[in-house]
Design a protein that fits this description.
It contains 2 helices and 5 strands. Strand 4 and strand 5 form a beta hairpin. The protein has a 5-stranded antiparallel beta sheet, with helices on one face. The mean pLDDT is about 80. Helix 1 packs antiparallel against helix 2. It has 2 domains: about 60 residues; about 70 residues. It is of the alpha+beta class.
């Protein structure tokens, strides 16, 4: 039974990882044709948002200032965590046809990759070290 649990963890990690990888690859393709510039974090917000079911959750956003062809823009990106602070800089990928649109890979995908790694390691540990049932 323990080995089955370990295998389920491994399968979950693989399936979630595949889904995140497909989504991440889409962003990488968009970024190939995107413009690049450095942006500065103006502020980080923590907003309460409500889902369609009425449940609330906190969303962390970084408000980023950046310049394209001498014109200033301000856009927001969703953060998986609130480690960014005012004054931090980051590489911004933007749509050349609409510089207001940021094409950075969502931070949430990076968190999904970490979660997949944890599931994979836990599953492998259970499969390798669990006694036979």
């Amino acid at each position: 039974m323990k080995k089955l649990t370990g295998l389920l963890f491994i399968i979950a990690a693989i399936l979630i990882g595949i889904q995140a990888g497909i989504k991440g690859a889409g962003y990488k393709e968009l970024q190939k044709s995107a413009g690049k510039t450095m942006g500065t974090v103006e502020r980080v917000t923590m907003d309460k948002e409500y889902s369609g079911t009425g449940r609330s959750h906190i969303v962390n956003r970084a408000i980023i200032n950046y310049e394209v062809a001498g014109k200033s823009y301000t856009s927001a990106i969703v953060l998986a965590h609130s480690a960014m602070q005012k004054g931090d800089t980051m590489l911004i990928y933007y749509d050349k046809n609409d510089p207001n649109k940021i094409l950075n890979t969502p931070e949430s995908l990076k968190s999904v990759y970490i979660l997949c790694s944890i599931f994979l390691v836990a599953g492998l540990a259970v499969v390798v070290w669990a006694p036979n049932d």
